[in-house]
Amino acid sequence: MQRAGGNKSGRAVGYVIIAGLTNPHGSIELMRITISAKGKGYGRRVLRQVKRWAFEEQQAHRLWLDVKEENERALNLYLSEGFVIEGKLRECLKTGERYESLLVLSMLSSEYRD
Predict the structure, then answer these.
(1) Does residue 18 contact residue 50 with C-beta atoms inside 8 Å?
(2) For 47-84, what is each residue's pLDDT tens digit?
(3) Which residue would you say has higher pLDDT here, 39 or 76?
(4) Exposed/middle/buried for residue 104 (C-beta within 10 Å: 0-12, 13-18, 19+)
(5) How many whole angstroms separate alpha carbon 64 and alpha carbon 106?
(6) What is the CA 17 to chain-centroid distance, rounded?
(7) DSSP track, 57-90
(8) Are strands 98-108 and 14-19 parallel, antiparallel or unpaired?
(9) What is the pLDDT at residue 8?
(10) Which of 71, 70, 68, 64 is nearest to 86 (CA)?
(11) If we measure between CA atoms, which residue out of 84, 52, 42 comes closest to residue 65?
């Protein structure tokens, strides 16, 4: 994948971690997008590049991710970019003394093409 998420100075503003490149079912996991400069559109641009790379270059059937249920900013981004909520992993993460739930979202290649 091309370098994504650079600012005008050419410095990186984040990174992406992807898994499942050898998955025999064509299912790629977007494990993490981390952007240091919030509110500048870098996250949306990077997400669009990841989708294009996954479906056009890698010929993936499915791109999926999980997001903390309370992370409304990220959840709204994924939903606005066409991801669909598949389910909820209830209280699967322990953070300090509390538990957090994850939402699983995905996009299929047919949904990307539409």
Answers:
(1) yes
(2) 999 999 999 999 999 999 999 999 999 999 999 999 99
(3) 76
(4) middle
(5) 4
(6) 9
(7) IS--SEEEEEEETT-HHHHHHHHHTT-EEEEEEE
(8) unpaired
(9) 62
(10) 64
(11) 84
